[in-house]
Design brief:
This protein has two helices and no strands. The chain is mostly helical.
Length: about 80
């Protein structure tokens, strides 16, 4: 579950956009922007909650892999 700090930081990121849309944009465009922000936030929180659960399930089933971006580092052979 996201902490209060994470929720506050997320809200502060969108504050300038919300302020700008309130003063400069028509109501139809404003609604479209708000729906887009809402869908984006819902997608973030869903993935934030689902990814740890799914990764634990995959680990129990033996479905693991290697991070190709770590090639040449000490963690190269660490399974993900």
């Amino acid at each position: 579950m996201p902490s209060l700090f994470e929720l506050t930081a997320l809200g502060l990121i969108f504050l300038p956009a919300i302020t700008l849309t309130n003063s400069l944009v028509s109501i139809d465009t404003k609604n479209s922007i708000y729906y887009s922000v809402l869908v984006g936030c819902l997608a973030f929180f869903c993935s934030y909650m689902i990814i740890p659960t799914v990764s634990e399930y995959f680990s129990r089933k033996g479905l693991k892999g290697k991070d190709m971006g770590r090639r040449g580092t000490p963690d190269e052979n660490k399974e993900m």
